[in-house]
Specification:
The chain has about 400 residues and is mainly α. The chain has helices spanning about 25-40, 45-50, 60-65, 65-75, 80-90, 95-105, 115-125, 135-145, 160-170, 180-185, 190-200, 210-225, 255-265, 265-280, 285-305, 315-330, 340-360, 375-400; strands at about 230-235, 240-245. The chain folds into three domains: about 20-105; about 115-245, no CATH class; about 255-400, Up-down Bundle (Four Helix Bundle (Hemerythrin (Met), subunit A)).
């Protein structure tokens, strides 16, 4: 069996050298592998190593040091070889530390959630609960094998585990808040696989009420979308959504500019509506189109009220825009330059089209047997147009507030 890989194919030239990976990740995985192998009896170690595709040896060598026996053979293998070896071993043993070491090496060089985003996600739990439906310790045990993880006081208390720490700090006492708990279990440093496991667990309907779940998913998506990920509905559980982390398009540079402008104007409502629309563009086109129109309605109403004017509750989007255009001097007839008249006429057409699109294919009305089902590209168009128009209206209002009354700026 000497020279065979885990899947049984003979290894010739190694495809990936250890130099392709950070040395610390390679060294950690080798150490975890050797440690897990050394937990077997000395009689079984040679056969186990052979099954893993490592070089053959005899029991005399194994009896001298099981760890050294495994380590000598592991250093002969490339970093790329270590990943499938670890996968095979994890079929026979249950080791969180080995699984983490494997995942971190496996994830190296692939799209990832940044450390900054992880810190921002962690900060969410300064104001939100880890779980509204579970005992906190039960929830944590679902995500992390706490009884396997070493205590932060292991140098003082031999044999103590992280579970012991948490019981002491959260059950017997009330020393650690949710944010500190997440730091202690390693949320900032764990593998991305484990980080995603947490996101999916903390947004589960088993962990959160319907209202808390919706708020938490929105808050998390607003952060991880910048790294190209999002929580999307994977299935339903008794009528409640179950979310999974999926790769998603990061979005256009315009998304960031629009987000900044709308957040500066009104972070709680206007910007929140925009981020909800962004979250739904690819996964829920109908909902995104509904939010695209609602975003413009909100912006129109906010500015009309700030300008000291009034609108009728029955006003639809085109009527609201007509009122606002008069306030901001955006009607084509307010300008003599042909190019401005054309642009502003097009803006009015965009607003009317968004209202019409929403009426025809959004989720705001009954679909009916012949109603068109929108695709993601339709939602992309509607949301992007709405965001651009909303930003233009906000910027124009800000300009109007600071300019001389006689000025006419588009």
């Amino acid at each position: 069996m000497n020279g065979f890989s885990v899947d049984g194919d003979r290894i010739g030239v190694q495809q990936t050298s250890s130099e392709s990976y950070p040395a610390i990740l390679v060294r950690t995985l080798r150490t975890e592998l050797a440690s897990a192998i050394s937990n077997f009896s000395a009689n079984k170690v040679p056969d186990l190593c052979s099954r893993l595709g490592l070089r053959d040896g005899d029991r005399d060598e194994s009896f001298k040091s099981k760890f050294a026996y495994a380590e000598r053979r592991l250093v002969e293998r490339s970093a790329a070889d270590l990943i499938p070896i670890a996968a095979r071993l994890l079929e026979e043993v249950d080791s969180y530390s080995l699984s983490e070491a494997k995942s971190k090496l496996e994830e190296y060089g692939k799209p990832s959630v940044s450390e900054l985003t992880r810190k921002r996600v962690l900060a969410i739990f300064d104001t939100k609960m880890l779980t509204t439906e579970h005992d906190r310790m039960d929830f944590l045990r679902r995500i992390w094998p706490l009884s396997e993880m070493p205590s932060i006081f292991s140098q003082t208390y031999d044999g103590r585990t992280l579970e012991d720490d948490l019981i002491q700090a959260t059950v017997r006492n009330n020393d650690w808040e949710d944010r500190e708990i997440l730091e202690r279990v390693g949320l900032l440093m764990c593998s991305q696989r484990q980080f995603f496991r947490f996101l999916e667990g903390v947004t589960s309907p088993l962990a959160q009420s319907a209202e808390a779940q919706a708020e938490l998913v929105s808050a998390i998506n607003d952060l991880i979308r910048h790294d190209g990920f999002r929580l999307t509905i994977a299935r339903m559980m008794s009528g409640s959504p179950v979310y999974a982390v999926q790769a998603a398009a990061i979005g256009s540079p315009a998304d960031t500019g629009i987000s900044q402008a709308l957040a500066a104007y009104d972070a709680d409502t206007i910007h929140a509506r925009w981020t909800q629309a962004l979250d739904r563009r690819d996964t829920n086109p109908e909902g995104a189109i509904t939010l695209a129109r609602t975003l413009l309605e909100d912006v129109c109403k906010w500015i009309i009220v700030e300008a000291g004017e009034e609108y009728e509750e029955k006003d639809d989007l085109p009527q609201l825009y007509k009122r606002l255009a008069k306030i901001l001097k955006l009607a084509p007839d307010d300008h003599t330059e042909v190019v401005f008249k054309q642009i502003l006429g097009s803006c009015q057409s965009v607003v009317e089209a968004l209202g019409s699109l929403r009426n025809k294919i959004s989720d705001a009305h009954s679909r009916g047997p012949r109603r068109v089902r929108p695709a993601a590209r339709h939602a992309q168009l509607a949301v992007n147009l709405s965001g651009a128009m909303a930003t233009f209206l906000v910027d124009t209002w800000n300009a109007r507030k600071s300019e001389q009354p006689a000025s006419s700026i588009v």
